[in-house]
Amino acid sequence: MPFFSFLFKKSNSGCPRCLGKGFVDWEDIRRLNKQLKWAPGPCAYCNASGKATPEMLSNVAVDTTYLTIDLPESEIEKIKNGDEETIEKGKLQELFVESIIKYTEYHYVNKNMDAQSIADLYLNTEDEKAPFSVEKENLIQYIQKIIELKNSKPD
Q1: What does the pLDDT look like over 113-142, one tens digit per residue?
Q2: Mapping DSSP to helix (H, G, I), strand (E, B) and coil, where does residue 23 land?
Q3: Which helix (H) or strand (E) holds 82?
Q4: What is the phi/psi pair of residue 51, to 5°?
Q5: Which residues contact 83 (CB under 8 A, 6 or more apart)?
Q6: Side-chain-side CA neighbours of residue 32 (13 Å)
Q7: Is the dihedral of CA 53, 59, 63, 66 positive or negative?
Q8: 67 neighbors 44 (Cβ within 8 angstroms)
Q9: pLDDT tens-digit profile of 49-72?
Q10: Residue 25 backbone dihedrals phi, psi, to 5 degrees
Q11: Residues 6 or more apart from 114 whose CB is under 8 A from it?
């Protein structure tokens, strides 16, 4: 019977995001191509347990950018349950982040602007009705990270 119990043994799935560590580190972030979108911290995919639930594995992509540990539990549950409004909110947030990255890269490479100048220009032209807004100091720090990453990558 050991053979059959092996066949029908419950899957003890390690988490594909943190690889079972319960913590997402820089290596995981690079592997999932989420630089500038995630920071190291407890894994939201497995709730820092190192093991992903079957519902998470079947319903949520491992690289879902919006799913981070700083979200309220109710928001994480909505993502797990496939709530369309929450998923759309996550997609909008990812588009917002992507647009800031592209905006920064363009102005840094083509206009030779520094982080402070890019942030000032962005904030001066930001739509007052934009769905997401950022504080100047946080934006400058983020733009500096974008520039650092851009400088560290070979073209």
Answers
A1: 999 999 999 999 887 777 788 899 999 999
A2: strand
A3: none
A4: -130, 125
A5: none
A6: 22
A7: negative
A8: yes
A9: 999 999 999 999 999 999 999 999
A10: -105, 180
A11: 108, 147
Burial class from Cβ neighbours inside 10 Å (0-12, 13-18, 19+) for residue 131 reads exposed
Identify residue 140 by its one-letter amino acid code.
Answer: I
Nearest alpha carbon to residue 50 among 25, 14, 83? 14
This prediction has a pTM of 0.82
Q: Which two tokens stand for residue 10?
A: 């419950």
The distance of Cα 40 from the centroid of its chain, to the nearest Å, equals 10
Site of tokens 């943190």? 18
Q: Residue 41 belongs to what H/E stretch?
A: strand 41-42
pLDDT > 90 fraction of the chain, expressed in percent and rounded: 82
Tokens of 58: 């079947």
Residue partners of 133: CB distance under 8 A and separation at least 6: 126
